[in-house]
């Protein structure tokens, strides 16, 4: 099983929103094989607490405009890490230290990468 076309479109929208708001080091992973309840993770780094919150807000706004609704939000208040769960897509926005600490790329290293280059290039 691989991430659906709808999930990949959500990744594209979220990646463009994150890039437009100063998000860095974007990585999207197809986690549909090991996780039957989610298709993709999008990992983003924000350079400050304020930037982490701004990225999370913009991602949520754009996905809501596209018809997706967050079913859960975590960690946003502190601005060090935000998790936005849209069902098929989970967006993690990290402050650099938290991203290094949780090392989700290492944890999910066997999962295929979903290209976000087009979304990033199109947004800038």
TrEMBL record:
The subcellular location is: Cytoplasm
- What are the protein's UniProt keywords? Cytoplasm, Repressor, Translation regulation
For this protein, the record's InterPro entries field holds: Iojap/RsfS/C7orf30, NT_sf
GO molecular function per UniProt:
ribosomal large subunit binding
Q: Where is it mostly found? A: cytoplasm
Q: Which GO terms describe its cellular component?
A: cytoplasm
What do we know about how this protein assembles, alone or with others?
Answer: Interacts with ribosomal protein uL14 (rplN).
Q: What does this protein do?
A: Functions as a ribosomal silencing factor. Interacts with ribosomal protein uL14 (rplN), blocking formation of intersubunit bridge B8. Prevents association of the 30S and 50S ribosomal subunits and the formation of functional ribosomes, thus repressing translation.
UniProt name for this protein: Ribosomal silencing factor RsfS
The gene it comes from is: rsfS
